[in-house]
Amino acid sequence: MNCPADWPEPIVRVQSLSETGNTMIPDRYIKPPSQRPCFNTRSDNLNNIPVIDLFGLINGDSATQKVVRDQISTACREWGFFQVVNHGMSPELVDEAREIWREFFHQPMEAKQEYANSPKTYEGYGSRLGLQKGAILDWSDYYFLHYLPSNLKDYKKWPSHPPFLRDVIEEYSKEIVRLGKLLLKVFSINLGLEESYMENAFGGDDNIGACLRVNFYPKCPRPDLTLGLSSHSDPGGMTFLLPDEHVSGLQVRKAGEWITVKPARHAIIVNIGDQIQVLTNAAYKSVEHRVIVNPDKERVSLAYFFNPKSDVLIKPAAKLVTSKTPALYQPMTFDEYRLFIRMRGPQGKSQVESLKSPR
Fold first, then answer.
1. Closest Cα partner for 342 from 152, 135, 129?
2. Hey, which residues does 306 pair with through a beta bridge?
3. Which fold has domain 14-349?
4. Among 107, 144, 109, which Cα is nearest to 125's?
5. Cβ(308)–Cβ(334) under 8 Å?
6. Spans of all domains in the chain
7. Tell me: the pLDDT tens digits for 56-106?
8. According to the model, what pLDDT value does residue 339 have?
């Protein structure tokens, strides 16, 4: 991927800005009025994203499995987002995966700076997305690492402290990959495709991409002026988010309205990415989402991106293309696609919408 070796401007750690105790934030983080959050968004149970219990899918008979598959199908078509519980991961692992990263971000700055990243791969400790000079930035720091394909996994780029972080993330990563492959199978069946279609379209068992971005959203004295992460749809296949159960932050756009997600206990939030929107010819759509920040509490979340192989062509499944539903998208590799994000940062749904074939 043809990205510069360095950022266009000196990097400032948002956590350091937060810790100064200033009551105002730098201009670089102040969003235009049209992009600023509003805090009277709906977050009641009737407007929360669906919560789906996977126990019956993993352990039930065929009839029970179909009930759960139907719930997933409805969530994919109507929301593009859902939460899964009884997903097969232990509550202890889920909690430990989040809290060990919180501990990482509370280390001295020198320890974190050893892993400072560049836009070439984004691997390591970072504080901005996109390369536009003078861009308005988000109020967050992060850590990015690769898990799959195995030739990209480099333990030297995984933090060595806190102790056991590498072991915990290795175990958590294996569980996320298991869950990802299960859901690809479910999506294929629900769409009337061969059950291995989606996994093969991603490049097959040994070529699927899996990478983790751990998000750290420090306290912000003016949460009304900025965002932790600007509005965007995820460029990859699908995303598995381990949220901070005690601090709300994720907002999902539905019918023009921002809905603040209420995480279920030990749930994993799943959302459709742009690549699945293309593969399904928009039967399943990726959805804009963003993150708000908090004046009193920090927030930690783990976003695991489950992606196609970087050089495989992604295009609508032939079985989903008919005279009534012609192909909406031209073939494009995931590498070509995500270069847009790496150069420009979050830009709503402008990338996937711009790819639609002329009619």
1. 129
2. 210, 238
3. Jelly Rolls (2.60.120)
4. 144
5. yes
6. 14-349
7. 999 999 999 999 999 999 999 999 999 999 999 999 999 999 999 999 999
8. 73
